[in-house]
Amino acid sequence: MSQLPDPYEVLGVRRDASQDEIKSAFRKLAAQHHPDKNPDDPHAPERFKKINAAYQILSDPQKRATYDRFGAAAADGGFPGGFPGGFGVDASSIEDLLGSLFGAFGFQKGSRGDLRKEIVLSFHEAAFGCTRKITYDRAISCGTCHGSGARPGTRPETCSACGGRGRVRFTQGLLGFVAERPCAHCNGRGHVVNDPCDTCRGVGIVAAENTLDVSVPPGIEEGATTLVSGAGNVTRAGKAAGDLELVFKVEEHPFFRRLRDDVVCAVPISFPTAALGGEVEVPTLEGKAKVRVPAGTQPGAVLRLKGKGIPKRNGGRGDQRVEVSLEVPEKLTTRQRELLEELARELGQDVMPQQRSFMEKLRDLFG
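^ thats the sequence. predicted structure below, dont judge the formating
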């Protein structure tokens, strides 16, 4: 009997690695060493087979505990909790391997194979649209056996227990009701693989890396989704692939936030500018621009730059809203303080209607 490779070494993980770390290592190595990606390397199928075998052990807590305790000797099946027939995959363990592969891609047996992936966009990309190339892992039909699970030149045999139906009938209850259940002999597949494919080890499905060019329309919002039909996982040979749902996330911008089709930006101005009016320079999605500040502008006032917002689906663009905040100097020279004190005496209360209104409401409240 050949020495069983150490599954921890095969996947390149520590012996105390978490299940997430093991899953991540498997997905990376499976995509890297897949025979379809290495057609000129005769050793690729064997490496891929070892990677799958290592993951089958370490992804199962019971099998992992057995290996940790007994090491390669567990392959003989002579220890409690060992693996009869060794760690290799034969026809009877296809469903176990299929379950491991499904687990690596985050879906359970019986699911449709749908995938979900987030795409993070910058604020500018979300506003004006872009094309993004995304790469992700998925499960596809094995290219070596074309999804049959059988070694090339052979074919699966019809299950003798269910006659190829994948289901068997049985009598239930005292009244003899006839019901159906999946065939236990072939696990509902309708056939058995006695000579499994070296690439997929009889599963008919392998891990693969997929690349898509995604066209992002202008004005897309945080949390928007789109569906790419057939770009998900294949859950069983001969069955159509599931769909890929893309969820768009938008990064925060240091200056802007979005309000429907408008862009909002807060801009500090000085007291003289607020009182006397003038022009201030503000950032926009397309560079710098100047906005006119009317005399007597109050803190919290909103100025608008027409057509500088988010492109609309039906044409045109929203506006940019400039929220005015008053910047108060933190340090004053003696001369500046004298001038401000003189201005305060000169202004009195008559030219500050907001303060006058506040004081009136305060008197009404407390008498």
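Residues 75-96 have pLDDT under 50 and may be disordered.
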